[in-house]
Every structure is written in C-alpha cells, then in structure tokens.
Amino acid sequence: MRVEAPWQKGINGMTPEQYMMIDTRVAAESKSLGTAFLLWFFLGVFGGHRFYLGRPGTALLMILAWLMFAVPGFIWWVVDAFLMSGMIKSDNNKLRARLQTEFSMMNSARAPAPAATVETA
Question: How many Å apart are CA 59 and CA 52, to the nearest integer?
C-alpha cells in the first residue's frame, strides 16, 4: 500500500491520479458536439439535438414553436447552433463537479480518525 505525503495531495485532498480519473470519466461520458450538430441539422425542427443534450422540455417547446410559428422556430434553430457547445461544456462542468464531490467524500471517509487523548488524573 502506497503512503502519500501531505504535499502530494491536491485541492480538496485529491491526488493527481484522482484528477486524471475524473478527466477520463468526463471525456467518456460527455456528449459529442459532432453528433449534436448532425441532429441539429437533420432533426432540429423536432428538437432532436435538445433531446440528445438532455433538455426534453425545451425540445418540446421548440416543436411547438415550429408548429405554431415558423419564424420564431427558425430563429431558435439558428441560435441553437451557437448555444450547443456551451450546453455541452456546462454539462461537462456539472459532471466534473459531481465527480470531484464524490472523490472528496471518499477521501474524507478514508481519512484516519484523530487519535483520542486520554487524560489520567
């Protein structure tokens, strides 16, 4: 078992290896911008890219906007082309924060309890 020196801990008491594990998980679980753009181009009228990015509520609103008013639906479709990368970055940041919290909680659970002092009279 490897014992780490206190200076080898990073922010939140995490090791560099744990940060690498987090980055690997974020890269594996993140949505693809290419896939989002393909869905936007071919199924954007139906909010396909928004369903893919985990925003079903606004996807349904987008469908209604297209059905009721074509011009606002088209404008929304064009604006989404610029918003998609920010949506993916936001989701990745939320995932990274959640994983960092989980690792920090695991590290604090593993931390040895402070030694109890016994006073004798």
Answer: 9
**The residue type at 51:** F
Determine how many CB atoms are found less than 10 A away from the CB of residue 88.
Answer: 16
Q: Is 5 exposed, middle or buried (0-12, 13-18, 19+ CB in 10 A)?
A: exposed
> Quick one: three-class SS letters along 26-48?
HHHHCCCHHHHHHHHHHHHHHCH
Considering just the CA atoms, what is the radius of gyration of the chain in Å?
Answer: 23
Cβ(58)–Cβ(48) under 8 Å?
A: no
Instruction: Say if CB 105 and CB 53 are below 8 A apart.
Output: no
Tell me the two tokens of residue 51. Answer: 């369903």
What's the rounded Cα separation, in Å, for the pair 88 and 71?
26
How far apart, in whole angstroms, are the C-alpha atoms of residue 82 and residue 28?
Answer: 23
| Total length of the chain | 121
53-102 pLDDT tens trace: 999 999 999 999 999 988 989 999 999 999 999 999 999 999 999 999 98
